[in-house]
Every structure is written in structure tokens, then in C-alpha cells.
Amino acid sequence: MSKVLTIGEILVEIVATDRGNGFREAVPLIGPFPSGAPAIFIDQVGKLGQPCAIISRVGDDDFGWVNTNRLQEDGVDISGIEVVPQGTTGSAFVRYREDGSRAFVFNIRHSACGTITLSEKTLALVDGCSHMHVMGTALYSPSVVESVLTAVERIKANGGTVSFDPNLRAEILDTPGMREALRTVLSKTDLFLPSGEELFLFTTAQTETEAVADLLGRGIKAIVIKRGAAGATYHDAELHLHLPGFEVEEVDPTGAGDCFGATFVTFWLRGASPADALRYANASGARAVTKAGPMEGASTEAELRSLIDSQGIA
Ligand code: ATP
Ligand code: MG
After folding, report:
1. Ligand 1 atom closest to Cα of residue 255
2. Domain span including residue 209
């Protein structure tokens, strides 16, 4: 079975329990929840029983423990998570605005995971993996960019595959070197997983059909566009397929895209049909939004099947 690798931020998330505009006043908070887009992604891969690992760093503190404990419980190889003795685990404070958009305060670049570099030990872990998933959010510091690009190169050189979710947050787009790094990753991507407008990040095309044709023409094998409650669309050279979302009550949308991507990638690597992979991924994204906390809504395969069966989709 393919072993899936990701590299990037491990964070705790602390969430305001009321809605409003950011953090310029004292607000009630709940957390810490295990978080970080790459961590949520790899936790969902682990929960599906697929071999997987993450390379990251945490501090020697409770926030780090919250994450490593959860990831290990859910089946993730945590041998690539280094504990930085004087470091502090990263964090993100999140508050929803009345319109549903999110305000963030991040502590990532200057946290333990801002110092990720590859060692002999983690390079050996890279070489034991056959699929690399890149999260755009993970390209937040030059040393992490270098680690991600090295892993992409080595895994591709060994005949492996790469998936890429740009997962852009306005707060991190101005990181030096980020845009160039995104382009380099795209040029090595087999499976591209943008959400909505992210499809147009790397093309001058004006319509979705043209953007998809342009990207497929550059060697990307398949594109899956995430559309929130409306579901998702799959494109490859032969097939174009849209499946609507499942009907669920949305409690907390954070993490839906990561769980969706993890589930699509896992089924794709197992050789499932695009329709099956898309159906399970939609179920995974839908279940993710029903739980408060970004990683709390990750699902087992049985839980996904039960949602699919309950809504009568064969
Ligand atoms: P993230 O905030 O995690 O980065 P994203 O923008 O990458 O999210 P979304 O499109 O919001 O991704 O969600 C991913 C998938 O999750 C959707 O394609 C859909 O399958 C599922 N999903 C998300 N929100 C809902 C919802 N309210 N109801 C049903 N399914 C949903
Ligand atoms: Mg996303």
C-alpha cells in the first residue's frame, strides 16, 4: 500500500465561542483543538487505515502533546515529528464573523514548526513514502518550503505521486518566496485539489472549462474542485463529473477541505473509480463540518459508508 507523506504545520486551534470581528476585545474561547491543515489531512488519511506520516516540529508543551497523541491514536506515523526543546507549539486563534468568514491570529512562523528542516532521519522517512501531499499553507517559511520541495523531488524521482491543495489564506500569501514555491509544486502535481477561485491561481483562463483544459494540458492528471455545501467536481482527460454535497448541519466548516482531500487522495491511491473517490470525499467533508474543532470531524471508512447509505446514494 502507498504510504502518504505530508510536511508542515502542527498547531492548536483556539476558537471564539461567539461571532464577531476579530480579537480586539476579550472574548470567550474554547480549545486547544489539534489543528494545522497538513495535520488534519494526515489524521484523516490515518483514520482510513492508509499508511501515512507527517514531518513537523512541536514544542515540549501540552499543545504539542495534544497533537502528537491524537495523530498517533489515529494511526499516523509520528516518527517525523521532532520536539524542539526551547520551542513552542504553533497556534491559531479563530473567530467567525457574522457573514461566516473567519478572522485568524496565527503563531506559526516563529513557533516550533517554523524551524522544520530535513535531517538524515526524516530524509529516510521521505524515501519510505510513495505519495506526497502538499498544503499551500505549509509554505510559510523558507526552510519549510525547501523541505517540501526536496520531498516532492525525491518522491517523484522514485516513481511516486504528488497531490496539491493550495488552501490559501490571505494572511499568509505575502510570505517571501511563497508564490514561486506554489508554481514549482504545481509543475510536479498529479492531483490538484483547489477550492472555488483557487482554480484560477495559476492560469490566465477566464472560464472553468478553459482553466481545467489549460492545467490538464500541463501534465496534471486530475483536478478536483471543492465547492463547500454544493459538493465537488472531478476532471481528467476523459471524464468530467459533478456530485452534490451531502445534507448535514454545518457547525464548524474548518477542516472540511483537508478531510475531503485526504479521503479523495486515499481512495485515488487505492485505485477506486473517480465517482467512488468523489462520493467518499464528499461524505468526509460533510461529516467534518458537523463537529466543532478542525480535526474532530475526521471519519473512519465505516462512518463514511454509513452517511452515504443513509442518504440513499448507491
Ligand atoms: P477549508 O476551510 O477546510 O480549507 P475548503 O475551502 O478547502 O475548506 P470546502 O469546499 O469548504 O473546502 O469543503 C470541502 C468539501 O467538504 C466540499 O467539497 C464538500 O464535499 C464538503 N462540505 C463542505 N461544507 C459542507 C456543507 N456545509 N455541507 C455538506 N458538505 C460540505
Ligand atoms: Mg481548503
Report:
1. 3
2. 4-310
Task: Indicate the burial class of 150 (C-beta count within 10 angstroms; 0-12, 13-18, 19 or more).
Answer: middle
Residues with CB under 6 Å of ligand 1 are: 167, 195, 226-229, 231-232, 245-246, 248, 250, 253-258, 260, 282, 285-286, 289
Residues with Cβ within 8 Å of residue 50, at least 6 apart in sequence? 1, 2, 3, 4, 266, 269, 270
Our mutation pick for probing the ligand 1 site, out of 233, 289, 308, 313, counting the most ligand atoms within 8 A of Cβ, is 289
- Cell 483536478 belongs to 223
Q: What's the gap in Å between 260 CA and the centre of ligand 1? A: 7
Rg of the chain on CA atoms, in Å: 18
| Domain of residue 256, CATH code | 3.40.1190.20
What is the 134 CA–ligand 1 centroid distance (Å)? 18
pLDDT in tens, the chain (314 residues): 899 999 999 999 999 999 999 999 999 999 999 999 999 999 999 999 999 999 999 999 999 999 999 999 999 999 999 999 999 999 999 999 999 888 999 999 899 999 999 999 999 999 999 999 999 989 888 889 999 999 999 999 999 999 999 998 666 667 777 888 899 999 999 999 999 889 998 999 999 999 999 999 999 999 999 999 999 999 999 999 999 999 999 998 889 999 999 999 999 999 999 999 999 999 999 999 999 999 999 999 999 999 999 996 65
Most ligand 1 atoms within 8 A of CB, residue of 195, 225, 254, 307 to mutate: 195
Name the grid cell of 48. 482510513
ipTM rounded to 2 decimals: 0.96
Burial class of residue 271 in the structure, from the number of CB atoms within 10 Å of its CB (0-12 exposed, 13-18 middle, 19+ buried): exposed
* Closest residue CA from atom 17 of ligand 1: 228
Per the structure, the count of domains in the chain is: 1
- How far, in Å, from the CA of 156 to the mean position of ligand 2? 24
